[in-house]
Design brief:
With 610 residues, the chain is an alpha+beta fold. 23% of the residues lie in helices and 32% in strands. It has 14 helices and 37 strands. Strands 20, 21, 22, 23, 24, 30, 32, 34, 35, 36 and 37 form an 11-stranded mixed β-sheet that branches. α8 (364-376) crosses α13 (565-571). The model has no long low-confidence stretch (mean pLDDT 92). Bound molecules: guanosine-5'-triphosphate (GTP) and magnesium ion. Magnesium ion is lined by residues 20-21, 46, 57, 76.
Length: 610
């Protein structure tokens, strides 16, 4: 075995929002890859539009900086549990990890998940207690909790010997002792160089594991990964080894390494480095690219199983085809299957109906991001309510269960525990911080979590924070009864008018503004009661010749409640769908005609009575 001492490969891992991408900003800015006084902004690695809008990292990405004689390849990863597949996908490119822990929040569920992944891969860890500039930082306590977590998860005594640094990514400094005055991030860089082992390299011909894909309109597909063996240069002939072992030959057209936010074209690259190569027309994540002299496959990347599924179908609403550019079965199918090339923890299956596909992911947000991405690309389609994925093990029905952590003010304990017991959650821990806040932990079936994300925000006026982590499969308990009220359903197709909406508002909350086009069977509001009712919101006030004393008073409508995509998919029941187009998100009954719906309801009732 040889080493490449001029390189260090690290991944930055943590719970959501603990400051990974902000710390990468500091590393990039202080490595002088930008011109002095060049305005570069924040969260530089979160470059896709959805990441910027939501303020979270969705996809893991590579960058690199130079420090002294070293190149440090850095992989920024997402912290949200729904994107755990991204961590699993990229972590094998690294030799070490920075584990960030927020100095106020302390270790959180995803801290545990990522630390376990890092241990599984045998990576060297550096703990960074981050955000120490925060007023209520509790550094000593958080360090203690982090050490406890290491003790619990370590599988090897060596893993307990880890350096600890203290940082404020936002203010751009890292120190080796709390209380020290910070200047810059150099203590972190020194620790990386000293403690993270240099990449080991094997002798032999070229071999690379594809961990990421990108696309360039000129260069075509770009395969990204770590070179485990040998070297690569433009015009080299290589073999791509697919999941089924099939081998195809390609000629490398370009080789690139990272520097800051740029790709740098290089004449060749060698084992130990993380590179991009072009010229391989067909390639998926997990494939090996190797020299034809020794084309053996590296172990494929393993990612956890999906836990939540929903259907994606061709849009069957009366407004189908009006707003999207891509709306056919073929286009929908191709797009979904194409997603599998990069979205490793996603699964897509055909169903009995040729127009409907079953899509499985790691959580509601994982699926919602795909829906939002497709809608922005011009697709229109309809999706069902997400469901937890059950499976049969030795003839027993099993369902996924998760650990749920909630941080909220103490005054919400009552309402939250009541909501959660209806969702079959069991409390496993509750801790007060002595300042009016509480952290509660629950054991909950995944099915009980569906729709809970928006429910908790409403119940705690936006203040409650929840986190979940997948625990495993347990025997199915029983079905959940719906926790939602009935809906107001449009009884006619046409344009919503103020008069009709005003009548509807006597029955509940409305979801559409005047002048919105609606169709029969579309959900336009939420009823105060548990039953659905049909309302005609297109109805104008009867014109009369008599001036009544009130007719001239303008009707004041309560503004419509406009749901986000995530809220919409959380909201719908089994007999409902969300219609998604580049311009609209509509909720609808699966069965649009009221007469048919009523018939279905009475048939269901009869079958229950029998
Ligand atoms: N006070 C303080 N705030 C910070 C610091 N670092 C990051 N933040 C803030 O914390 C929030 C999250 O920061 P990010 O860098 O996006 O966190 P992240 O870990 O990359 O988040 P995900 O990628 O979504 O998991 C932002 O509002 C940052 O401004 C810090 O050192 N101090
Ligand atoms: Mg981030």
């Amino acid at each position: 075995m040889n080493y490449r001492n001029d390189i260090r490969n690290i991944a930055i891992i943590a719970h959501v929002d603990h400051g990974k991408t902000t710390l990468v900003d500091a590393l990039l800015k202080q490595s002088h890859i930008f011109r002095d006084n060049q305005l570069v902004g924040d969260l530089l690695m979160d470059r896709n539009a959805l990441e910027r809008e939501k303020g979270i990292t969705i996809m893991a990405k590579n960058t690199a900086i130079l420090y002294k004689d070293y190149k440090i390849n850095i992989i920024d990863t997402p912290g949200h549990a729904d994107f755990s597949g991204e961590v699993e996908r990229v972590i094998n490119m690294a030799d070490g990890c920075l584990l960030l822990v927020d100095s106020v929040e302390g270790p959180m569920p995803q801290t545990r998940f990522v630390l376990r992944e890092a241990f599984k891969k045998g990576l060297k860890l550096i703990v960074v207690i981050n955000k120490i500039d925060r007023a209520n930082a509790r550094i000593a306590e958080v360090l203690k909790l982090t050490q406890d977590l290491f003790l619990e998860l370590a599988t090897d005594a060596d893993q307990l010997d880890f350096p600890v640094l203290y940082a404020s990514g936002k203010e751009g400094f890292v120190v080796t002792q709390p209380g020290m005055e910070g200047k810059d991030v150099s203590p972190l860089l020194e620790t990386i160089v000293e403690k993270v082992p240099p990449p080991q390299i094997e002798d032999g011909p070229f071999q690379l594991l594809v961990s990421n894909l990108d696309y360039d309109t000129h260069k075509g597909k770009i395969a990204i990964g770590r070179i485990w063996r040998g070297k690569v240069a433009p015009h080299d002939m290589v073999v791509r080894i697919a999941a089924d072992g099939a081998q195809t030959r390609w000629e490398i057209s370009g080789v690139f390494t990272y520097l800051g936010l740029k790709r740098l074209e290089v004449p060749h690259a060698e084992a130990g480095d993380i590179v991009s190569v072009t010229g391989i027309g067909e390639v998926s994540i997990g494939d090996t690219i190797a020299s034809p002299e020794a084309p053996s496959a590296l172990p494929r990347i393993e990612v956890g199983e999906p836990t939540v599924e929903m259907t994606f179908g061709v849009n069957t609403s009366p407004f189908a085809g009006r707003e999207g550019r891509f709306s056919t079965t073929r286009q929908l199918r191709d797009r979904l299957y194409r997603e599998l090339e990069t979205n490793l923890s996603l699964r897509v299956q055909d169903t009995d109906s040729p127009d409907t596909f079953l899509v499985k992911g790691r959580g509601e947000l994982h699926l919602a991001i795909l829906i939002e991405t497709m809608r922005r690309e011009g697709y229109e389609f309809e999706v069902s309510r997400p469901e937890a994925i059950t499976k049969l093990v030795d003839g027993n029905l099993m369902e996924p269960v998760e650990a749920l952590t909630i941080d909220a003010k103490e005054e919400y304990i009552g309402i939250l525990t009541e909501m959660l017991s209806k969702r079959q959650a069991e409390m496993s821990d509750m801790r007060h911080d002595g300042k009016g806040n509480v952290r509660m932990e629950f054991h909950i079936p995944t099915k009980g979590l569906i729709g809970f994300r928006s429910a908790i925000l409403t119940a705690t006026r936006g203040e409650g924070v929840m986190n979940t982590i997948f625990l495993g499969y347990e025997p199915w308990r029983r079905g959940l009864s719906s926790t939602r009220s009935g809906v107001l359903v449009a009884s006619e197709t046409g344009k919503a008018v103020t008069y009709g909406l005003n009548n509807a508002q006597e029955r509940g909350v409305t979801f559409v503004e005047p002048s919105t086009m609606v169709y029969e069977g579309m959900i336009i509001g939420m009823h105060q009661r548990s039953k659905d009712i049909a309302v005609n919101i297109c109805k104008e006030k009867k014109k009369t010749n008599i001036r009544s004393s009130t007719s001239d008073i303008a009707i004041k409508l309560t503004p419509a409640v406009i749901m986000s995509l995530e809220q919409a998919i959380d909201f719908v029941n089994k007999d409902e769908l969300v219609e998604v187009t580049p311009e609209s998100i509509r909720l609808r009954k699966k069965t649009l005609l009221e007469t048919l719906r009523l018939r279905e309801i009475s048939a269901e009732r009869r079958s229950l009575e029998e």
